[in-house]
Amino acid sequence: MESQKEFAGPDKGDSRLSALQTNTSAVRAIASAVEGTLGPKGLDTMLVDNRGEVIVTNDGVTILDRMEVKHPAARMLVNVARAQQEEMGDGTTTATLLAAALVEEGAKQVFRGVPVAKVIAGIGKGVRFALQKMQEIARPIWELDDEWLQRIAFTAGRENEDISELVIEAAQMVGREKLMEKNFKLCDCVVAHPRAESEVFAGILINKGRMNLQMPAYKHDVRVLVVGDALEPEPVDEEALATEAGFARQMELKDEFLQVIEKLIQMDIGLIVVDRGVDPVAEEMLTDAGVMVVQRVSHHDLAKVADHTGARIIKRSALRKMPEELETVIGHCDEVEDHEPYQRIRVSGGRGKPFATILVGASTEEVVGERERICKDAASAVQAAVRGGFLPGGGAAELALAREVEKYRDSVQGMERFGVAAVAEALHRPMVQVVANAGFNPLEKVEAVKALQLKRQSDSLGIDCDRGNVADMIEMGVVDPVPVKYHALQAAGEVSAAILRIHTIVKMRDLPDLIE
């Protein structure tokens, strides 16, 4: 049993460790802000700003992103949560808790007299070993109708059955190959609107409406042109415009441009999606011809339209090509519709890559925002599970990994083994917090699970948060995607080492403003 002094930090006179003690306290404060949301019995957090506006959520990244954080070490921890969200779309609370636990456990070893360099090296070894073991015990998912995938969606979707069904339908619609693509994120397919009916459809939504209400609101069997430029005449240099030759050149370019517009109409283009603005005369001509034009579309949406319809994004200079050459860049889709209440264009049935859009609705702006976050979490978890498989949830896998790390510690020579021990202790934290949030004694329950896991050589035993008894998480359907857990532990190991490495904190002087 460690003495009280070992937990209290350094003596007042030991200034060498004061930065570590300050950083550890700051990290602990950040973790305490989100730890109460973990697990099925986790509670919500109310965020209040200076104007009295309120957000009620149990989403870890939302809490960390909106809360006021001033301490530099605390900001490092918040950045870990943001990186976890950007990379995985889920697991921010777990990443935060693990990072805080690693800092706390590592600091305890330093306060006992272990050199900080040895602790950091040991944490690195322990984390790498745990990550290797994590991959060894992963359960793969081969089919998109796997019942575990549905369970993962249900759990990550905070047990909202309608959201989990939407996510699974969307995953099946885009297919396994698309889900495995490095740059594709299923969570990007989620769109929320307070007046929308929740649904999934095979297509995309452009976050813009048609140029004017005289253009058709609906078209079917549509030929699509995607212009990554302005749909305007080529510009003439300002200085040249002041000359007669320059003015003549401008008129010539305008005439050529209007001929291009006439050519596009004759080619029966039904939808033109433009990166920038559209010339007023061209707008009028295209409106009269019944062409739907969407201008100032983001690069992200432009790329999605091109991928889904099979079009190629071209510059306006390419529009001067012969119709036969332009045919190679034209895309196709079954339907285009302007949803005026949503102020978005719906493109469905594209001949290119499969896309799915998950449209999430709710009764109010506040509720729809939370449902959107939940749906994105579920979509991210489903995609992660398809890519890397799943593990028992509820902290069971981490507890089993802690047992393996403890064995590994005995093979590590020298004082680095104390850093490895810190990893083993930190891996207890997820189950400890889940049990505490459920209202049970963590010390009693976690020790009971450890004993039974060892006896049965199991990695799936945890605590039933309703009854408080030891139960098999796999049998209960409580599972988590491997990539989410893997990235959380990996990121936690990196940031904890960075924080422990800080020897002192020095306030920088304000630099004078540079004079032009």
UniProtKB/TrEMBL annotation:
Top-rank taxon: Bacteria
Please give the PROSITE patterns that the UniProt record associates with this protein.
Answer: TCP1_2 (PS00751)
Against InterPro entries, the record matches this protein to:
Chaperone_TCP-1 (IPR017998), Chaperonin_TCP-1_CS (IPR002194), Cpn60/GroEL/TCP-1 (IPR002423), GroEL-like_apical_dom_sf (IPR027409), GROEL-like_equatorial_sf (IPR027413), TCP-1-like_intermed_sf (IPR027410)
Question: What Gene3D superfamilies is this protein classified in?
Answer: GroEL, GroEL-like equatorial domain, TCP-1-like chaperonin intermediate domain
Record-level Gene Ontology MF annotations: ATP binding; ATP hydrolysis activity; ATP-dependent protein folding chaperone; unfolded protein binding
Q: Does the keyword Nuclease apply?
A: no
Q: Which UniProt keywords apply?
A: ATP-binding, Chaperone, Nucleotide-binding
What protein family is recorded? Answer: Belongs to the chaperonin (HSP60) family.
Protein's name according to its UniProt entry: Chaperonin GroEL (HSP60 family)
- Organism of provenance: Planifilum fimeticola
